[in-house]
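Continuing the batch. This is chain 6 of the set; chains 1 through 5 are on the previous pages. Same settings as before, nothing changed between runs. Recording input and output for traceability.
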Amino acid sequence: MVSAGVLGVNGLHLGVAYLPKVLMGFGAGAAWMLLGLARAHPYRRIGAGNQTTIVRAALVALLAGLVGEHGGVEVATAAALLATSITLLDGVDGWLARRYNTVSSFGARFDMETDAVFVAVLSLLAWQFGKVGAWVLLSGLMRYLFALAAVFWPLLRRPVPSTYRGKTIAVFQMIALIIVIAPASGSGLAVTVAAAALIALIFSFSLDVVWLLRQSETHDR
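Output for chain 6:
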C-alpha cells in the first residue's frame, strides 16, 4: 500500500499530504478491525473473506487519500479505476466466507462498514470534482445519519435483515457514483445518475424504518 501511495504521489503529482492521509485512514480502519476481532471474531484465524475485505479497505484508504487533492483528468481516472476495483471485489469476501465456512457477524459488519466508508468517500469525490452539488454528500451520510438517529430512537437499533433489495441498491449506489466521478461523464449525466441513486437510497432506508415500525407494533401486541 505504501508503494502504491508513493506511486500516486509521483505519477499523479499529488500533494505531500496524500501518503500520510492514506496511512492514517488505513490505520484507523485497522484499529477498528483489531478491536472487533478481539471482541466478536469466532475463529482462530482471519479467513479468506475477511482478508479480501482488508484488501478492499486498503484500496478505500488509497481512494480516500484523493479527497482534497488537486488534479485533472489523471486523478479522476485513477479514482474511477480504484473505485471500480473496490466494487468488483464487493461480494467476493462474502462468497469466500461461505465457501470456506467462515461466515460471522463480525465479517458481515466489517464488510458493511467498509462499504459505508467507500460510498462516503465516493460522494466526497463526486462533490470535489464539481459535477454535482453538495447534496450528493447525503449519499455518503445516510448510513451515519441512520446510526445517529438510532442513538435517540431505540427502535432503530434493532437489526434489519439483509435483503436482495438492499444489496442491489447498495451496488447501484457505488456504480452510480463511479459514473459521476469518471472523466467521460458530463455534468448532466452526473446529476441525473447521482440523483437517481440518492432517491433509491432514501427509498431503501425508508423501507427499513417502516419494517422496524411494523416489528415494534407486532412485538407490543
